Amino acid sequence: MGMKLFFLTLICGAFPFGKSFAQDLAEIKLIDSISVSFDSGSSLVRNPSKLISRLNEIKDVHGIIRLISYTDTIGNLLYNKNLASKRLLAVSKLIDSTQIKNFIIDSVNQNEQRKGAHFNDASYRRVDILLYRVVPKIKFGVPINLEINFHPQTTNIVKNSMEHVQMLQVIMEMDTTLHIKLNGHVCCRPDLILSLHRAEKVKSYLVKHGINANRISCNGYSNTKKLVPETTEENKGRNRRVEVVFIKN
Question: Does the predicted TM-score (pTM) go above 0.90?
Answer without folding.
Answer: no
